[in-house]
Amino acid sequence: MRRGRSIEFADYRTYTPGDDPRRVDWNIYARLEKPFIKLYEDEQDLTVHILLDASPSMRWRDETAGGADFARSAGASGKWTRAAQLAIAIGHIALTSGDRLLVELSTRERFGPKRGANATAELIAFIETRSVEMDLRESRIEPSLLAPAISLNAWWKRYALDARPGICVIISDLLDAEGCAEGLNALGASRLDTRLLHTLCPAELEPEFAGDVRLKDIETTATQDVSLDDATLRQYRDRLRAWTADLRDLCRKRGARYHLTNTATPIEQIMLRDLRREGWLV
User: Fold this and answer.
1) Per mean pLDDT, which range of 174-183, 190-199, 212-221 is the poorest?
2) In this structure, is residue 201 part of a structural domain?
3) Which of 30, 52, 65, 98 can pair with 76 through a Cys bridge, CB separation 3.0 to 4.6 Å?
4) Residue 31 and residue 91 share a domain
């Protein structure tokens, strides 16, 4: 809470020489014979930052789920689509609330700063255009030849250098070998109220693969041969729970908030129930 000039009363403090006498509460002085100054909440311009991960892992689709159009791919096969929808929904709330909105993709492409509900159409057009451009680039170039994705730590540390204080919403699958602790520290040091929206798809949360398979990392192209039986899948689920628990604890220690989202969950349920229940939205 900041103290300043507005009509919203916040607190009292003892009078000190140099204070404006007009801010003395004379009623309290008459009762206690001690001068106290009225403090008011400082009304400040709020900036909402949305950091949207557009790395190859975010754009992976489960080929067994089918459906490539915008609406259908939002479910089991569309991690990027669900993340983009969340960015648009949160951005729209910020714009209609009169806040200043700035959206940045991990590709360093930026939208804003913008203000006002009319900018929602521009936000939608920006994200849809970027989606089409990325689809075309990936279809024309062999994935292994694409520029490597920037690490989350490097991205967030660079962004924190000139970020204005406000709310920072990160939408990412957090699939980065280096982790994200250093980046979260940098954002927190920049006085950003950070909220981490961890976005994973059903194939990552509850894999249904079985037998002998070869897994290929979509970002590094490294491969791993593995035999998937019940014991292996149980071990995977245990490690997944431990990983998300560690992330939640990491955010808590740094004053950030964490929420795990399944892309198969309807967007309305995420926005109107889950995020409201956790106090992200009111």
Assistant:
1) 212-221
2) yes
3) 65
4) no
Q: In angstroms, rounded to a whole number, what is the distance separating the alpha carbons of residues 262 and 182? A: 25
Q: Do 107 and 30 belong together in one domain? A: no
d(CA 171, CA 54): 9
Q: Name residue 105's amino acid.
A: L
- Which residue range(s) make up the domain with 54? 47-277
Task: Give the separation between CA 116 and CA 97, rounded to whole angstroms.
Answer: 8
67: left (phi over 0), alpha (psi -120 to 50) or beta: left
Cβ-based neighbours of 258, under 8 Å, separated by 6 or more? 195, 196, 198, 247, 248, 250, 251, 252
Write down how long the chain is.
Answer: 282
Instruction: Kindly give, in sequence order, each residue whose CB lies less than 8 Å from that of residue 33, ignoring residues fewer than 6 positions away.
Output: none
Is 141 in the same domain as 266? yes
233 part of a folded domain: yes
**The pLDDT of residue 153 is above 50:** yes
Instruction: Identify the three-state secondary structure at position 71.
Output: coil
Q: How far apart are CA 116 and CA 94, in angstroms?
A: 8
Other C-beta atoms closer than 10 Å to the C-beta of 121 total 10
**Cα–Cα distance measured from residue 246 to residue 26, given in angstroms and rounded to the nearest whole number:** 53
Query: Exposed/middle/buried for 14, CB within 10 Å: 0-12, 13-18, 19+?
Result: exposed
- Helix (H), strand (E) at residue 260: strand 257-262
Give the number of other CB atoms < 10 A from CB of residue 244: 16
127 is written with which tokens? 């994200």
pLDDT at 7 over 80: no
- What share of the chain in percent tops pLDDT 70? 84
Q: How far apart are CA 259 and CA 76, in angstroms?
A: 18
Cα-to-chain-centroid distance, residue 41: 27
